[in-house]
Amino acid sequence: MLAAVTVRTRMIFIANPNNPTGTINRAEEVALLMERLPEGILTVVDEAYYEYVSNPDYADSMKWFRQGKDILILRTFSKIYGLAGLRIGYGIAKNAIITDLNKLRPPFNTNTISQVAALHGLRDADHIERSQKTNEEGKRYLYGEFQRLGLRYVPTEANFIYMPFDNSPVLYEKLLRMGIIVRPMGPDAIRVTIGLPEENRRFIEALKNVVQ
């Protein structure tokens, strides 16, 4: 990304964890970027799935915010908080950046119910802990089943798994007929959401019927 920066660059985007791969940028990588990036370029970090991350090498974006860097951290209540239907999230940046954003923000962009639900979500530590535990258990179960089936996958730090698959649209259609929805990622991969235990088992049983 540094090599791609020119005098015309004004903004760069990082998805961490990345969607759809579930991979992360590590602290060392982000430090290299932030320390060498020229002044006047805004770094936007999409951290929609950061609550799921368990890797200790995950980059701490708040470190660069506290140092006064031109960084905008985006987070959401749509994922681990389970409030996707309310369409609410938040951003973290220094005052000057927030002021500029407010000049562009349309009025009434969130509603009162969404804001109240978000505040309750922030206070519900038990829900977050349960969700993280369920995700980790589901991840380990799916990894084991994929290995037994001889299927490839990308280890994830999110609540979904990226799986290379030849002719993935055909796989998608076969699973769909069995009541299983996955996300096709072009012609050669799918993205699978980690669900509840019974949902994960149902997906594996369907997958066995398709790939064997």
Brief descriptors of the model:
alpha/beta, Aspartate Aminotransferase, domain 1, four-stranded mixed β-sheet, 212 residues, Aspartate Aminotransferase, domain 2, three-stranded antiparallel β-sheet, single chain
What's the topology here?
Layout: E1 11-15, H1 27-36, E2 42-46, H2 61-66, E3 71-76, E4 89-92, H3 95-104, H4 112-123, H5 125-149, E5 160-164, H6 168-177, E6 183-184, E7 189-193, H7 197-211
Parallel strand pairs: 1-2, 2-3
Antiparallel strand pairs: 3-4, 5-7, 6-7
Helix pairs in contact: 5-7
CATH superfamily of the largest domain: Type I PLP-dependent aspartate aminotransferase-like (Major domain)
The CATH topology of the largest domain is given as Aspartate Aminotransferase, domain 2
Sequence of secondary-structure elements: EHEHEEHHHEHEEH
Low-confidence stretches: none
Q: How many domain units?
A: 2
Helix share, percent: 40-55%
Q: Which descriptor suits the 3D outline? A: globular
Strand order of the largest sheet: 1-2-3-4
What is the number of strand segments? Answer: 7
How far is it from the N-terminal to the C-terminal residue, by CA?
41 Å
Strand content: 15-25%
Structural class: alpha/beta
Q: Major beta sheet, specifics?
A: 4 strands, mixed
CATH class of the largest domain: Alpha Beta
Q: In DSSP terms, counting alpha (H) and pi (I) runs of 4 or more, how many helices?
A: 7
Rounded mean pLDDT score:
96
